[in-house]
Design goal:
By secondary structure, the protein is α+β, with helices and mostly antiparallel strands. The chain contains 10 helices and 15 strands. Strands 4-5-7-15-8-14-12 form a 7-stranded mixed β-sheet, with helices on one face. A 4-stranded antiparallel β-sheet has the order 1-2-3-6, with helices on both faces. The chain has a 4-stranded antiparallel β-sheet with strand order 9-10-11-13. The radius of gyration is 20 Å and the shape is globular.
């Protein structure tokens, strides 16, 4: 039963807090009909300290009678040609809905403090939410404006996968450890002209190497000579599948080098990825996409049998305008 009560806010205590934070996140998602599911391993990876994030300063934990019932965090991104986004992330257990605004107040205050220490320019409080979740309504109530729409698409069957051959001169090669930096740099370069691009660093590369559900045997990377011209880095989240009772694979991190776009590379690699997921026993595939992607990716994925299942919004509220 929901209890509308004030909670006690305290600093993050490290890894010992992750199980309670994970329970909070998953309880909220299940209560509101979401499909997002997180494990301690995934949260630990996502919350690793970095140059733009200090867990000791940028996380708050909410308790009632010594039990974790919510948490919040902030981090920030330098967005190419658009200033800085200071993220406002807050979660509360559905039994304690009143904690969410209290946590959000703390996170916004912390985000503004971080922003005040940076040079003048365009600065925004930023939030992201599945539109079916209550966090979207709370962001709007707090004065955030929707500025971008993304979506989760699902291909409900891995039958009837189209045959989309790659163009002449492009081949898929098994991924070797010596390829990893080249693959990562090709993906970074391909997204440089996309909305919301954030410059990547060696720190980001090292974090990428340690991400959960890492399985390069599922990746499909297209090469033309020594150049990576396209890629789909698929994965299977076994924990999520157990939670949802699904056999779903994710065809994610899809990119094509700018000079090779429009030649069928993405569709060829996606179809090959779908076959690989089917061979691993999956019966559906999903991906996330910016619905206004400059390459027309949203339409491409729909043409390959993916269907819209959930909408997500990126929200902003101005802190400072240059």
């Amino acid at each position: 039963m929901a209890v509308d009560t004030r909670c006690d806010l305290r600093p993050f205590r490290g890894a010992e807090d992750f199980p309670g934070m994970v329970r909070t996140f998953n309880a909220r998602s299940e209560y509101e009909g979401g499909e997002d599911y997180v494990t301690v391993e995934q949260m630990s990876h996502n919350y690793e300290p970095g140059s733009r994030f200090d867990p000791g300063q940028d996380i708050v934990v909410a308790e009632v009678d010594g039990e974790i019932v919510g948490y919040g965090r902030t981090t920030w991104d330098e967005v190419a040609d658009d200033g800085r986004d200071y993220w406002v992330i807050a979660q509360s257990h559905p039994d304690f809905p009143g904690a969410l605004d209290q946590i959000a107040d703390w996170v916004e205050t912390r985000a503004r403090t971080v922003a005040a220490g940076h040079p003048p320019g365009n600065k925004y409080l930023a939030g992201w939410s599945d539109e079916a979740m209550s966090w979207a309504s709370i962001l709007r109530e707090r004065g955030y404006q929707q500025v971008r729409l993304s979506a989760t698409l699902v291909r409900p069957s891995l039958d009837d996968i189209p045959d989309r051959p790659l163009p002449e001169g492009v081949e898929v090669r098994p991924v070797e450890d010596t390829h990893l930096r080249t693959i990562w740099e090709a993906d970074v370069e391909a997204f440089r002209d996309h909305w919301g691009y954030v410059e990547q660093t060696d720190e980001d590369y090292e974090k990428w190497l340690g991400q959960p559900n890492w399985d390069p045997s599922l990746w499909r990377v297209g090469w033309a000579g020594e150049k990576v011209v396209g890629q789909v880095r698929s994965f299977i989240d076994e924990d999520e599948n157990r939670k949802l009772g699904a056999l779903r694979g994710w065809t994610e991190d899809i990119s094509t080098a700018r000079e090779w776009r429009g030649r069928g590379i993405a569709s060829g690699l996606i179809c090959s990825s779908l076959v690989a997921l089917r061979e691993r026993g999956m019966n559906e595939a999903a991906l996330g996409v910016d619905t206004e992607n400059v390459t027309g990716a949203f339409r491409l994925y729909q043409s390959l049998g993916y269907r819209l299942t959930r909408s997500h919004s990126f929200y902003r509220r101005v802190i400072e305008s240059a």
